[in-house]
Amino acid sequence: MLQILLKSVGLFGIILDSLLRTPLFPGLLWGILTVVGIKMKKPGALFCILASLENFNRCVLTQISRILLLLGTFTHGIINKMLTPYTSNWIGLCQMMLGLMPILALITWWENPLPLCSDHSPILIKDLEVPSKPHRFQFKNYWTNMPGYWDILLNVFLERANGNPLIDFCDKLKCFKTLLKKKECSSSLKIETSLKELTSIQHDILSSLDVDPNNESLNASLKDLNFKIADLSNSWSSWIIQRGKAKWLTRGEDDLNFLYSKIRGRKNLKGIINSTVISNPNGHADIIQHFHNLYNPTPAGQPDLNCFPVGDILPPHLRHILIGPVTVNDIKHDVFSGCSNSSPGPDGFNFHFYKTGWHIIGPHLCRAIQSFSLKGYITRSVKNTAIALIPKSNHAESILDFRPISLCNTLYKIITKILAARLKHIMPQIINTSQAGFINKRISTDNVILGSEILGFFKRCGRSNYMCAKLDIKKAFDSVSREFILLRLAQKGIPQEFIGWIKSCIMDVNFSICLDGALEGFIPSSSGLRQGCPLSPYLFCFAMDAFSNLLDSSLDGDVFEPFKIGDFKISHLLYADDVLVFGKANVNNCNTLTNLLSKFASSSGLVVNTHKSTLIMHPNTPNSNDICAALNIPQSHTKITYLGIPISIKKPSIIDFSPLIDVISNKLSGWKAKLLSFAGRLQFLRYTIWNTIAYWIRGAIIPKSCCKQIDKLASRFLYSGDANAKKLHLISWRNTYKPKVAGGLGVPSLNAIRFANSCSIISRMYNFPSLLANWFFHNYFSPWKPAGCLDSPMWKQICDTALKVKRNFAFKITVGSPISLMWDHWCWGDCLSSLPHVSGLKDLFPLNSNISVIMDGTVWQIPSFISDPILSRILSILIHQDGAVLYWNNGKIGRYSDFLSEFYSNDTVVGWHKVLWHKRAALRFSVFGWLSLVGGLKTADVLIKRCISVNPICCLCYSNVENVSHLYFECDYTHAIIAKLIPALNTFLLRPNLHQIVDFLADGNFILLGKRTFYPLLLWCTVYYIWRERNSRKFGNKFCSSTTTHHLIIKAVSQKIKSWKDGDIYKDILKRMH
């Protein structure tokens, strides 16, 4: 790419005149048109500032005229008439030249072929006179290791506090920020430049040492230089990791190439934003006005809560949870639970600043927050919020195609996290059971399952007279009325003191917009909640709770008829603002729903967007068009996507799961994922891909063909780095799926996830009341009752799992427990239906009766005709007043990990898993240890067995056939390295191989003499670097001596133990190994 940095656009004429006389002309001119931007053809292309392009246009038009004359296509007169109108209209010129330039390029390239290069941006022109706005301050985590940082922090916060502690704390932060920005080494650009300069000097010294290797002065200089480069490299890596924000990339695995790609991706998104802004004649002003209108709607008057039923109110004995004093432990917990790499707010400070400086700023911070709890006052600067614009797609062209995300100040987050933690405890008691979002013990996928079950009932009952409406609320979080929320809090019995704290946090908030790294505008707001504030999800639930109670029991006579089957009825399901409404499918009921929605909108500000809403009815429903018209929804459907998972009246087909396959395939085939190492790909699978799959499994039955395709994509991605490539890998996917103790990588199989999910549903059914549990008990009674042919696929899967784990679950009888009298094994591990001499009970009570029919409070009421053996067994069981009902093996409520362990309980435990996967294991090294132990390395002997022609001789010692046993550590080269690192191996009579060393490290006596985690880390680091040296010799023709490889291992281990609390002990051991 040619880069031309112009002091003035006028100079471009001279340069362009010479460039366009060369064979590079077509690429240069076409590149200019591509970069400057053809919006219609290149969505998201960069646009130049139009006012500064007049001289530039004249230069380009002159050269275009010349080439047209040379081609003999046009005369002077025609050219002047055609191009003169575009002298000041660059966009019009670009659009006109779109059709012309391919022809010119084709002709000229045909005569003078262009060298291989991209047709995108072969020339880049920058006008240095265009002023750049200063970027907003952002705290960099590596600053804590910067010379003088702690002196500045200590001097600022040692000053005497004045006035309000919160205001004083904010003033100290401003002062500290000002002093910090004056430091010369605070810029990341300077670190990058210094690192390049030192690397260049290092290269020169190494060249000199090649000539004079015994020069003491050069060796000393090289040693000092290496320490400086190591420090700068750590700072630069810290900054890249902080910017990359890949939370799943943990446990020491540093895939910097992947993080670089994420940062470049965000730069591309920033370019999309800039192009959208600059293509608009008014630019920033229109965007600021858009958000001003969004956050300041026309007031609709004071909300009227008299028409809203209250529902459940806060019990008096829970009031102290909300208004208790704020303690130092509360503040410290919220500070240290925050993510160090999270994006900061307008003030630029992140959680890492508060964590590392806690011993200095902690007392000041605690006084500031406790002052807020006493006075209920918070300054505007603390509440100020930055808006980051995230494109919803790669072809965003207007501001409506961006998703605004609020970036709150960290100080504000700490305060609101304390309030949110208190709200979290009381939410289950006062929020309607239909709301599954952000409420403890309520699961989003339960709503998906219940919605799917109800729609399946529509099909089973044939000519159904019920409907399901999926309602889309327009800009829900941005438009909700704050006054309505505060009034609703008071209506639910929240103490006025706590409401005052909430009001201080959510009222009088100002916004600025992040554009090209700078903050633009200062927008006041009168409505909405910030998506990024810890309080917002809980406060929004209070707003939607008013809708729930209005729909269930209106006070104005408009009664909505819900879906009802027997004693079970349900009107709606909620997950935050995702609404599913179930009810009678008739015009009157739809008119009632419309009136209730209008009433709710007038008070809360939450308006339903009917154009994005969907209606589901059975195809045979009469008056379907009239029902659609009553709800103002265009037409009815038979399937919808709810919370990302398809649900429908009919059985889902394979094509309904194509979005899941597409998402996984795109993530695994993307060029970013190809930059990951083996350990990085494992983390990517475990924490990104598998979380997506687990979510779908929790809410739907994924077809077997889709599961096979997912397994194929995942195995190819892990072992080949590309989901579309078919390469040799030596370990079956079934063995990879195993837990670590059984010799696998700890990634659960899809069957294991499905099994654990079914166990989890069974446990939650009995222990945590919910709408889904009520549905299952009403329709199916017990998971240990044989499933019927008409039962749903999800319930059949649950029943199959229940039979497999029957011996693992045990019941505890409580008052009001949902235990089935006949089907559940509550009688000392047996169900009554399988015991003899209980036929009288079967005749007296219905087969599906609840156990409460033979209970009177905490006393058994057993009919007298029951035989003595059965009677004595029942009477020996204690009835508890309350508590959990269903327990797992260990006498506690089963956890997801317990269920996964049960699935793999029959697998054989390997002896080396504790040495390989110890608590301080570095995944980057341990995965290669795993490959070497299970036969996953492609050594010469393995390839030859598969008829692949390779040199069988070991490339490290050139004396023996290469195999895993020889490579680790019978080879002269590798044994010399491992013997220096673990001197105790010299006591062996013969050279030990890898398995023997692992057994040696696992021996208890040796562990007492050595270190339980240190020597395994050394071992697996050695395995990694030996394999890397082997590949470097085979494929890169680069050779390192055993001493050099030994030093590389010592350096790598030194980096890993820096974060260990007892790392100084091991540093001394490493020094002795040099």
From TrEMBL:
Domain Reverse transcriptase intervals: 371-647
Keyword Membrane on entry: yes
Transmembrane segments: 20-38, 90-110
This protein's UniProt keywords: Membrane, Transmembrane, Transmembrane helix
Pfam families attached to this UniProt entry: RVT_1, zf-RVT
Residues of the signal peptide: none
Top-level division of the source organism's lineage: Eukaryota
Protein name: Ribonuclease H protein
